[in-house]
Design a protein that fits this description.
heterodimer, A: alpha/beta, TIM Barrel, 4-stranded antiparallel β-sheet, B: alpha/beta, Elongation Factor Tu (Ef-tu), domain 3, Rossmann fold, 2 domains, 7-stranded antiparallel β-sheet, 5 helices, 18% helix, globular
C-alpha cells in the first residue's frame, strides 16, 4: 500500500473520519482491542474540543431524514484540560496520527486551545472548527472571509503543526472563505460540515423536533452539495483538501478525489457501518497501486 | 451473568432470518448469528434489513435500529418487534432466509442481584424483551425472579402467554390487573422491600419506576431506550439526563442505568 502524503504526514490511505462522527475511546469499550487491529481511518480526527466543558444540547438530538439525518448534538466535550489529561493518553494508543479539532468562541479562546495542543507531542495536526452550525458560537466565523482572516492571523503563528480549517457549507461562497484560509497560512481545508436544517415536530405544532432547534444535515442527501463545494474550493486554492459529505462507497470517495480532494472523510456512513472507512481505504490504496502511482 | 459487557465483534455482520412470527400485536424475530458471541440480558443490537433498507416511506429507513435482545444462545438471537415506523415496518416484512445486518452485542447488561435481594422484573409493552431474557438467566442461575408485564390491551398481552407465572396488567383491564404495571411493582415492594428492581418500558413507565426506587431506596436498574444513529458511542445522539447534571449516552453508558444516577426521564 503506498502512503499518502498530507501536510508532512504519511498516511496509510486517504480515508479519515469526519470530526464528531467516531469516538475511538467509546468504540474501544464496545469492540475491545479489535478496534486497534483494524482501525478504519488513516488518521483519527477528534471530536471538537472547547476550552470549557460542554454538556451539549438537550435531547432529542437526532432526526432521520430522507437519505440522511439531522443532528443537534451541541459539541459535548470534557473541555481542554480534561481532554489533554484523560483522553490524549488513550488516543495516543491508536495506530494512526491524531488530529485534534478545536473550536473557540473568539480568537483568544482559539489561541489558548491551539497553544495548549501545540505543546503536546501526541497531536499530529490541528483542525479548527469554524463551521459547526449547531451552536451560536463559531457560526459566523467561517461563513465570512473577513471574520475568519484576522482570527487565523492570530492563531497561525502559535503552532508549527499542520493547521486544517474545517469550512462551513452554510455560506454564500465557500471558495472565498477557503482562499482567506490559505492566504492566512492554513495548511489544508476540510469540507463540508453539515448543512443547517430543521425537522418539524411530528405533532404538527410547527415547533422543531430537535432539542437544540436547528440541526445539521448529513449523509448521502448532501453528497452532491459537498462535491460541488469541494470542486469549487479546489479551483481556487492550492493547499490540500479533505473532502467529505455523504461518502458511502469507494466510488463516491473517488469522485471527491477527482474533484480535487487529497483525502476524504467518512462520517454518517460509519454510524451505519463502523468498518466502512477501512474498506474504502483499502479499495483506494489498491487502486493507486494498480495504476502504478502513489495514491492521490 | 456478569456486569461487564460482552464485547461486540468490530463491524456489522450478516445474520439470517430463521423465522418471523406474529404474536398478537408483536412479532418475534429469530436470527441465526453464527459468528456472533452470545449477548447478556440488557444488551442490544443495531439491526437493518440486508436489502431494501431505504427508499421506503419518506425515503426511510436510513439508519439501523436498536433492539434489545430477548434471548441469545448457540448462535441464535431473538428480538421482539412492534411496527411503529419505516424501520420496524421493513423488519416486519422479513422472511425466512433473508439477511439482516447486525452489530452487537452492545451496551452494558443488567448487573445481577446483590445482598440476597429478590429480583422484581417490571416490563411495559415493547420493553419486555430484556426482562424476559433476564428472567431466564436468573432462573438458570438458581435465583428467583418476579416477572411483571404491563400492556395496552389483550392483543398486546397475547405475547405474555409464553411466560408462565408472569403477573399481568393491562390499561383496558382486558387481562390481569386493570391499571399500571407499576401498581404491581409497588405492591411487591410493599410486601418485601428487600428487592432489586429491573425495568424496561416506555419513558413514562420508567420514570414512575425510577421515582418508586428512589423514594423507597431500592436499587433499580432501568434499561433505557433512545433514538440512536450508531449504537457504539459515535454519534452522541442518544443521551439521557443525569441526576448530577449533564448527560450519559444510552448506547455505551447504558442502556442499563442505575435509577439513582438518573434525572427525570424525558417523555418521548
Amino acid at each position: 500500500m503506498s502512503p499518502v502524503a498530507f501536510c508532512g504526514l504519511e498516511l496509510a490511505h486517504p480515508v479519515l473520519n469526519g470530526s464528531g462522527t467516531f469516538d475511538a475511546i467509546a468504540a474501544r469499550r464496545v469492540f475491545g482491542d479489535a478496534l486497534l487491529a483494524a482501525f478504519p481511518f488513516s488518521a483519527f480526527v477528534s471530536k471538537t474540543i472547547t476550552l470549557a466543558p460542554r454538556d451539549g444540547n438537550p435531547p432529542p438530538r437526532l432526526w432521520e431524514a430522507a437519505a440522511g439525518m439531522l443532528n443537534s448534538i451541541g459539541l459535548p466535550n470534557k473541555g481542554l484540560q480534561r481532554y489533554l489529561a484523560e483522553d490524549l493518553p488513550q488516543l495516543a494508543q491508536l495506530p494512526v496520527p491524531l488530529v485534534t479539532n478545536v473550536m473557540g468562541a473568539n480568537a483568544a479562546e482559539l489561541c489558548a486551545l491551539v497553544e495548549a495542543c501545540d505543546a503536546r507531542g501526541e497531536i499530529a495536526a490541528l483542525e479548527l472548527n469554524v463551521s459547526c452550525p449547531n451552536v451560536a458560537t463559531g457560526l459566523d466565523l467561517g461563513a465570512d472571509p473577513a471574520s475568519l482572516a484576522p482570527v487565523l492571523r492570530e492563531v497561525r503563528p502559535l503552532t508549527r503543526k499542520p493547521l486544517i480549517v474545517k469550512l462551513t457549507p452554510n455560506t454564500a461562497d465557500v471558495a472565498r472563505v477557503a482562499q482567506a484560509a490559505e492566504a492566512e497560512g492554513a495548511d489544508a481545508v476540510s469540507l463540508i460540515n453539515t448543512l443547517r436544517g430543521m425537522a418539524a415536530h411530528p405533532d404538527g405544532s410547527g415547533r422543531p423536533w430537535l432539542g437544540g432547534g436547528r440541526g445539521g444535515l448529513s449523509g448521502p442527501a448532501l453528497r452532491p452539495v459537498a462535491l460541488a463545494q469541494v470542486a469549487a474550493v479546489a479551483e481556487r486554492v492550492a493547499i490540500p483538501i479533505v473532502g467529505m459529505g455523504g461518502i458511502q462507497t469507494a466510488a463516491h470517495a473517488r469522485q471527491f478525489l477527482a474533484a480535487g480532494a487529497t483525502l476524504v472523510a467518512v462520517g454518517t456512513e460509519s454510524f451505519r457501518d463502523p468498518t466502512v472507512a477501512g474498506r474504502l481505504g483499502l479499495a483506494l490504496a489498491d487502486l493507486a497501486a494498480q495504476s502504478g502511482t502513489a495514491a492521490p | 451473568m456478569s456486569a461487564d459487557r460482552t464485547l461486540a465483534p468490530f463491524g456489522r455482520r450478516r445474520a439470517v432470518v430463521v423465522s418471523e412470527r406474529r404474536v398478537g400485536a408483536y412479532s418475534i424475530l429469530e436470527l441465526a448469528d453464527r459468528d456472533g458471541p452470545a449477548p447478556q440480558p440488557g444488551q442490544f443490537y443495531m439491526l437493518a434489513a440486508g436489502a431494501g433498507w431505504g427508499a421506503g416511506e419518506d425515503e426511510r429507513p436510513f439508519l439501523p435500529r436498536a433492539f434489545s435482545a430477548m434471548g441469545g444462545a448457540g448462535g441464535t438471537l431473538w428480538f421482539m418487534l412492534e411496527t411503529v415506523g419505516p424501520g420496524t415496518r421493513r423488519l416486519a416484512t422479513l422472511r425466512k432466509g433473508e439477511a439482516v445486518w447486525a452489530l452487537g452485542p452492545l451496551g452494558r447488561p443488567f448487573a445481577r442481584p446483590e445482598d440476597g435481594r429478590r429480583a422484581l422484573l417490571c416490563g411495559g409493552g415493547i420493553g419486555l424483551p430484556p426482562l424476559v431474557f433476564l428472567s431466564g438467566a436468573l432462573r438458570d442461575a438458581g435465583l428467583d425472579a418476579v416477572l411483571q408485564l404491563g400492556f395496552r390491551d389483550a392483543a398486546h398481552a397475547q405475547v405474555a402467554a409464553g411466560f408462565a407465572g408472569a403477573q399481568l396488567a393491562t390499561d383496558d383491564g382486558s387481562v390481569g390487573h386493570h391499571g399500571l404495571v407499576t401498581d404491581l411493582l409497588a405492591a411487591e415492594l410493599d410486601a418485601d422491600p428487600h428487592a432489586v428492581v429491573y425495568a424496561c418500558g416506555p419513558p413514562g413507565m420508567l420514570e414512575a419506576v425510577r421515582r418508586l426506587c428512589v423514594a423507597r431506596d431500592v436499587p433499580g436498574r432501568l434499561a433505557l431506550e433512545a433514538g440512536m444513529a450508531c449504537g457504539y458511542g459515535a454519534c452522541f445522539g442518544c443521551v439521557v439526563p443525569l441526576a448530577g447534571g449533564g448527560y450519559a449516552r444510552v448506547c455505551v453508558d447504558g442502556p442499563v442505568m442505575e435509577a439513582a444516577a438518573l434525572a427525570e426521564i424525558p417523555a418521548a
